[in-house]
Amino acid sequence: MRTPWKRQTSGSTVCRSCGRLVGVKDERCFHCGQRNPGLFGIGPMLRALGEDLGFGKLVITVCLALYLIGLAMDPSGMTSGGLLGLLSPTPESNFLLGSSGGFPIFAAGRWWTPLSAGWLHGGLLHIGFNLYWCSMLAPAVARLYGPGRAAILFVGSSAAGFVLTSVVFAYFSFLPGFLQGAYNTVGASAAIFGWIGALIHYGRRSGSRLLEQQMMGFVLPMLILGLLVPFVDNWAHIGGLAGGYGLARWLDPLKQERLDHVVVGLGLVVLSLVAVAVSWATGHQFLR
Hints:
59% helix; single chain; 2 domains; Rhomboid-like fold; 11 helices; 2 strands; mainly alpha
């Protein structure tokens, strides 16, 4: 019996692009033309990680790890902030790890933080809600777009959301309080809204009215709730939604995912984690 964690050197496998049967050593898929459809024999290993090649689990693992690191850096946040802020890393801890917003970008010059902030969270309810939606949406987005493009959508729409909320805070301070941007902000919700935007586009592009209606049924109440609940970063959600929809149009879900999509997606994930490391290395000077 062949174990899924061993490289396959002979026989047949399924094309990583169209899912049809191909030879493990085929240079091209006979059905869709995808180059190296068996990924040098490691395709079965990757498929064992799930439809999203483990990206959803990676998001959950990294977010949990950084959340616990933030709590350990300053335990005082564990007992402050009421129900919404229960077990929350302090703003200073999240700043060191790469929170974004008007202050980090425009006052502290930490322009890279739109990449890092999506991996950080506030209280227990905040991270629990976001990671639940990540686990629900990651397989669906990967199934329709491919795991590489799912990663591109996650990082890209997250960055778009944090850029928008930071710009609104810096340049549109005349807006009423609930429409102002964020001084300091974190969370994967911008990326989650980006994934929802991508699914809305897929519904429209493919003619699946049911999917589009389901996603609109999720996103509209969430946006309205964000206007009613304090401390919700509405502009990050709107920017993430628009960013995900725009990226989805560019990526075109009705075309097959390419190997370069996987490379770019992996590169963006690595770059965003590098942004966390750079934030840590350069942040202490601002908190002295």
